[in-house]
Amino acid sequence: MNLKAFYNLSYGVYIVSTLDGERPTGCVANSVMQITSEPPLIALSINHDNFTNPCIAKTKRFCINVLGEKINPLILGLFGFRSGKDFDKFKTVEYEVKQDMPVLSEGCAYFTCELVGKTETATHTVFIGKVIDADVVSSDTPMTYSYYQRVIKAKMPKNAPTYIKENK
Ligand SMILES: Cc1cc2nc3c(=O)[nH]c(=O)nc-3n(C[C@H](O)[C@H](O)[C@H](O)COP(=O)(O)O)c2cc1C
Predict the structure, then answer these.
(1) What are the tens digits of pLDDT across the range 36-54?
(2) Domain ranges across the chain
(3) What is the enclosing helix (H) or strand (E) of 41?
(4) CATH architecture of the domain with residue range 12-152
(5) Could you tell which of 7, 27, 69, 146 is best to mutate to test the pocket of ligand 1, judged by most ligand atoms within 8 Å of the CB?
(6) What's the CA gap between 32 and 44, in Å, rounded?
(7) Coil, helix or strand for 138?
(8) How far is the C-alpha of 53 from the C-alpha of 125, rounded, in Å?
(9) Low-confidence ranges of the chain (pLDDT < 70)
(10) Which protein residue has the closest C-alpha to ligand 1 atom 23?
């Protein structure tokens, strides 16, 4: 099997935000898709080892922040390569609270979702959320996963669904 075929699947790049109790937290995710528009449902896949996973399960609410091409790459590093378990990712990031969820001021759009279902796989949980609020935040061009690979050129952490071991 040629694992490089997976590089031809298209995605966006997002920060999924939620709460750890009252503290905002979250991580970068590319595995976001719209399932239906009526009702408006969105799915995303989060690794069991990511701190964001139990936080979404407990809070039963999450927010998909669509990232644009002009996003500060340091924010990608902060949310994509560090864990919120023992680190406050939102300390240096501008955000507003909407529908109880942290919404990034640097995003280009957001979708606040209420958890309505989840499915377990061996390594990841697929969360399904019903959109309860959404808005456009800026006119920045939404970043694609391909742009992330070609222009940002950062490696993928092993918890991302698209991670492929280098010797495979
Ligand atoms: C471009 C990119 C896409 C990612 N996509 C996902 C994803 O869809 N699901 C996931 O579980 N982790 C994904 N990750 C990895 C998490 O963002 C990373 O493991 C993060 O450090 C987890 O933080 P947390 O422990 O605070 O939840 C991605 C990382 C990057 C850089």
Answers:
(1) 999 999 999 999 999 999 9
(2) 12-152
(3) strand 40-47
(4) Roll (2.30)
(5) 27
(6) 4
(7) coil
(8) 8
(9) 164, 166-168
(10) 83
